Each structure stands twice: as C-alpha cells, then as structure tokens.
Amino acid sequence: MKETMDFPYTDDLRGRFADRLANFERQEHDGEGLKHAAVTMTLIDDGTGQTAFVLTRRTPRLSSHAGQKALPGGRIDTGETAIEAGLRELSEEINMHLGSDAVLGLLDDYPTRSGYVITPVVIWAGAGAEMSPNPDEVAKIMPITLSDLIRPDSPEFERIPESERLVLKIRFGDDHVHAPTAAVIHQFIEVLMRGRNNIRVDHVEQAVFAWR
Fold it and tell me: Nearest Cα to 98, choosing from 118, 120, 135, 128?
C-alpha cells in the first residue's frame, strides 16, 4: 500500500518541524583534514499551499560538480557559522534573502568523498519568499514537493564495485538524486517528516561521479 502524507505550508507544520529539530541530537563531525561547507533544505510554498524544498541544477560552467543537482550551499568562509554560510549561499545562488529567524535548525554533518564535511541547515522561507537563479552558478531552480518524497520505491540502496558501502538514492517524480544530497534529504524525511530521530546517514555511500 502506498504511504501518503500531506504537508500544507502552515505555521503548524513550521512549529512541528522546529520542535522535531529541537529534540534531535545531531552528530557533528570533527572535520579534520576536510573543508567545511553548508547546504540548505529551504522550505517554500509550492504555489498550491503545499510545502516544497528548493533543489537546483548547477550550471555546466562550474569547475566542480558541473550540471549536477544540488541543494543551495557552499564553502563556509573563515569566521562564518554554518547558518551564516547557508543564508549567504541562498542569497548568492538563488537571490533569496532571509535572516537567521528563518532557520529551524541543523541536521547531522556529512563527510563527502570530495573532501568536505557538510552541515545541513533547515530553513523556513515564509510566505511570499521570492527567488531567481544566479546564472553564474544555477542553471535551474527545481522546487520539489515534500509529499512527492513519500513513495514505496524510495529510498533506494545500490551496490557498486568501488565500495563496500551502499549508495543512497532518493526518488521524486521521474527524477532522483544520490548522496551526498540524498543523504541530507533522507535524514530530513525521517527526522522532520516522519518524526524518527534516530536515523543517521554518515555511513551511506555516494555515487562515483560525486567522488571528485
């Protein structure tokens, strides 16, 4: 039987998500030998009153991970917190300008094969939030409705010859993403959408194309 959930973009949902993050004991990574970055799970109204998050497709001109689907984010500058970096990257990548009061909390750090430790920042953009892609970084903004993440064929774990760890894939519509983006989305689904606060993702593998 298909599992169905409804996620209207309301103050009640915002409060529920904030409470679940407040009660979530997130895991930090020491980051030794890794660069630090922040990514954002930014929640918006999809235009029909349902909650969606912002996914982007990177431009093909970028020097790393060109053309890949990604959550808005980037490297944490010296003196910045993950929250400050996440809000700055939202402004730089999709011209969405928000303050710290939009931040609901943080999920687990995730170390990547490409040499970063990522801190996910969960953000509630609020009614009337506007955005547009910065063409130097973002080819397309792709809002994904939360209810589209609840499906029997996702998450999916794949074996690859290059690793003993299982590769994580998250599906939505006719598309999908792999870890590290999928790791952030998967933990978001489990912790915030389903209320399961014991789900960890630092053990899941990334697709080989994301190792560089």
Answer: 128
In the chain, the domains with their CATH numbers are: 11-210 (3.90.79.10)
Averaged over 146-156, what is the pLDDT? 96
Strand pairing report for 69-70 and 51-58: antiparallel
DSSP class per residue in 21-38: HHT--PPP---TTSEEEE
Would you state the torsion angle of the CA atoms of residues 15, 118, 143, 131, taken in this order, to the nearest 10 degrees?
90
Angstrom distance (rounded) from CA 9 to CA 110: 28
Query: Model confidence over 16-75: pLDDT tens digits?
Result: 999 999 999 999 998 788 999 999 999 999 999 999 999 999 886 654 555 689 999 999
CB 211 within 8 A of CB 205: no
Residue-level pLDDT at 1: 37
d(CA 47, CA 40): 20
For residue 155, whether the previous peptide bond is cis, meaning omega lies within 30 degrees of 0, is yes
- Rounded Cα distance between 102 and 195, Å, is 21
